[in-house]
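Entry:
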Amino acid sequence: MSQLKGKTALVTGSTSGIGLAIAIGLAKQGANIMVNGFGEKDAAIAAIKACGVEVDYHGADMSKPVEIEDLIAQTEKRFGSLDILINNAGIQHTASVEDFPADKWESIIAINLSSAFYTSHHALPGMKRRNWGRIINIASVHGLVGSIQKSAYVAAKHGIVGLTKVTALENAKTGITCNAICPGWVLTPLVQKQVDARAEREGISNEAAKDALVSEKQPSGSFVSPEQLAALAVFLCGPDASEVRGAAWNMDGGWTAQ
């Protein structure tokens, strides 16, 4: 399989979880990968390299526009182009609106929303010159519905869906598409921490805590896997998805169907 051979993908937040799975999925299709994130980068790079593609790493802090600009510039310099942009970096904090710390609000908006604007802002000129590009914003089911205690996250993810639509419309007559993927519960390291905390708090097993967490929102009762999200991203990058433009594609076990 090499439908993306010769293309270069930047995946933000790709040292673990959803981002790493998407990076591996794209690499299996032949895309070279620029890795970014604060996780175990060496293990991530090794896993992607095993797919037989070129890999590099840039440690840009996605809350800092100057570092994002350098990330895009260095990706284009290293690989000659930036063809696929996956905006995946994200953080979370939970608290009620009246108790939400101002610094946490600013960080979540910066990393979960503003970073996708800045990466797109700097990546689009090159994509337009080549008349080909794929921008995929990893939103969330919380880009479509709300949940208590998550004001900043929900606001950022709703913003990502709006940014996706505008970017898609502005490039509708070009070879550049922009879409959002909206996952429900995914068993990432971040979610596993929530599972562990719930198991300890309620004095139940880890498996029981997983079931309780998922069944509250997700009718299927099953987690979405990072690999399933990666497969969707690969499809959206391929030729069969050239007319999927501005979609907010939920993969959520029925969460938003309720």
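DSSP finds eight helices and seven strands in the chain.
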